[in-house]
């Protein structure tokens, strides 16, 4: 085994062990303790996070922020990594925002000049555009750690109508249209609710997973799949050409959109009943480019909102 190969193997071994002695490594790699000491010194100089303790119970330990061993990427694999990162660049908040910038800078600087130029062209020509919501989520990383530690949290939450204190058991986190969401079992409501992370104003306490059985999915993927399957309301909406174009860009409604060859179209689909309020608000801006045929509840919601707007703008005070 060459020295370079031994150093790479040693990095992999150290990452797995976290705690070790020089004698253990010398025995494992069939070299002298002096050789291991020189290798460890080179790893430390390269930035590998090691520290040592003297004494009978001493040895080497790896710090929490471990450095991973080198990984070989093909040219297309390197481009794929940067292409994937393009999808994140317009999110205002990320759990590891600074680390993302750092790793991309390190990675780019290690690539040959021609591949750097090719990646720059990708960055200049292709983007995954996400609307700027102007909503900061300063507690995103804290919520990420709570989710990963499988803890419960008591939060101060600013809802649509009031502020409240909730104790929640998070299912996970997901991002959609520039916003972060945390589905969680709310102990006050005795059911799973979806909390927008930017509306979490303070984490008052973090506690281990509470005792007892709670109807919480095992993963965020399982939760989202069940949400997709739970369709308990049928909607049917006629659209003009302008209405069709607007609905094509809205993921929730585009899935049930049918476009007529003669012009216009119709939305005919099953949705979650909880989405009716949002759909009413969305369609309110369509004017006569959308006509709701069913359900009656959606028609009633739009009529109520029109009445409230009329009262707000047209009735003199």
| Assembly type | single chain
What is the helix tally? Answer: 12
* Percentage of residues assigned to helices: 40-55%
Low-confidence stretches: none
Give the total of domains: 4
What is the tally of beta strands? 13
Mean pLDDT: 84
Listing every helix as H and every strand as E from the N terminus to the C terminus, the arrangement reads HEHHEEHHHHEEEEEEHEHHEEHEH
Give the overall form.
Answer: elongated
Tell me the major beta sheet.
6 strands, antiparallel
Sheet-strand content, in percent, reads: 15-25%
Quickly describe the structure.
The radius of gyration is 27 Å and the shape is elongated. It is built from twelve helices and 13 strands. Helices cover 42% and strands 23% of the residues.
Defining traits:
single chain; 317 residues; alpha+beta; Arc Repressor Mutant, subunit A; 6-stranded antiparallel β-sheet; 4-stranded antiparallel β-sheet; 12 helices; 13 strands; 42% helix; 23% strand; elongated
């Amino acid at each position: 085994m060459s020295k370079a190969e031994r150093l790479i193997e040693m990095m992999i071994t150290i990452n797995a062990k976290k705690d070790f002695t020089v004698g253990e490594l010398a025995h494992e790699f069939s070299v002298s303790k002096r050789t291991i000491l020189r290798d460890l010194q080179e790893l430390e100089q390269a930035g590998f996070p090691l520290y040592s303790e003297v004494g009978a119970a001493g040895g080497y330990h790896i710090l929490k922020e471990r450095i991973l061993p080198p990984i070989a990427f093909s040219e297309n694999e390197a481009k794929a990594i940067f292409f994937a990162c393009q999808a994140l660049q317009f999110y205002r908040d990320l759990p590891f925002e600074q680390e993302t910038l750092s790793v991309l800078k390190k990675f780019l600087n290690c690539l040959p000049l021609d591949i750097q130029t090719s990646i720059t062209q990708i960055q200049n020509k292709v983007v995954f555009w996400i609307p700027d919501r102007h909503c900061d989520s300063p507690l995103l990383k804290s919520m990420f750690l709570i989710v990963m530690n499988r803890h419960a949290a008591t939060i101060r939450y600013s809802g649509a109508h009031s502020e409240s204190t909730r104790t929640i058991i998070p299912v996970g986190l997901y991002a959609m249209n520039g916003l972060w969401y945390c589905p969680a079992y709310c102990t006050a409501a005795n059911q799973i609710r979806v909390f927008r992370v930017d509306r979490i104003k303070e984490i008052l306490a973090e506690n281990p997973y509470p005792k007892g059985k709670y109807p919480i999915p095992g993963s965020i993927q399982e939760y989202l799949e069940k949400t997709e399957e739970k369709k308990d309301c049928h909607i049917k909406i006629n659209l003009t050409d302008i209405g069709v174009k607007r609905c094509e860009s809205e993921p929730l409604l585009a899935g049930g959109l049918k476009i007529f060859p003669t012009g216009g179209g119709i939305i005919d689909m099953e949705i979650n009943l909880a989405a009716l309020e949002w759909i009413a608000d969305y369609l309110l801006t369509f004017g006569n480019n959308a006509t709701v045929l069913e359900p009656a509840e959606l028609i009633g919601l739009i009529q109520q909102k029109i009445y409230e707007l009329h009262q707000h703008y047209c009735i003199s005070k």
